[in-house]
Amino acid sequence: AMEKSYVSMFLLLVAISCALAKDVGKKETKETTAKPKLPQTLSRGWGDQLIWTQTYEEALFRAKHSNKPLMIIHHLDDCPHSQALKKVFAEHKDIQKLAEKFILLNLVYETTDKNLSPDGQYVPRILFIDPSLTVRADITGRYSNRLYAYEPSDISLLYSNMQKALKLLKTEL
User: Fold this and answer.
1) Is residue 45 a part of any domain in this protein?
2) Does residue 5 have a pLDDT over 80?
3) For the segment 85-144, what is each residue's pLDDT rounded down to a tens digit?
4) With bands split at pLDDT 50, 70 and 90, how would you rate the model's confidence at 171?
5) Longest dimension (CA), the chain
6) In Å, how far are 89, 101, 140, 148 from 97, measured between CA atoms?
7) Which domain holds residue 83?
8) Rounded CA separation 27/67 (Å)
9) Cβ-Cβ contacts under 8 Å for 39 (sequence gap 6 or more)
10) Whose CB among 29, 48, 125, 142 lies 3.0–4.6 Å from 39's, allowing a Cys bridge?
């Protein structure tokens, strides 16, 4: 019983010190707001002013509870196709504006969820998931062999697919 209380006490101390460490970090950021804002790391260059989720689980939770569709972008840092699409996506003002209506997640690794790779694990690939957590298999790009692939030249199709994801949201849910 004595050992258990030591373990409990130790865990409590760890929790308190973690909480205090977080607070210290917050204070420092408040004082340094005068400096130019660094790009948000979660955006990975897809839109620094947008709010990005960190994990697939967090994104699903937010989509479900905010009643917003989720847009997942699978990409790789060393993939020229991903880089080219990212550049066009980040510079497209209408897409950046429309993206604010989505829960956003960009992944540089594969998830274990097979629903996110319905036709293979290629990049870049963009899937839409509605708040009922259903992958929208009906919102696809123009390639029959890679349904969720987009190239820079497909940016207007991606834009209309984003509009479609929002419209379906209103009509179906």
Assistant:
1) no
2) no
3) 999 999 999 999 999 999 999 999 887 888 899 999 999 999 999 999 999 999 999 999
4) low
5) 67
6) 11, 8, 21, 21
7) 61-107+155-167
8) 33
9) 45, 48
10) 48
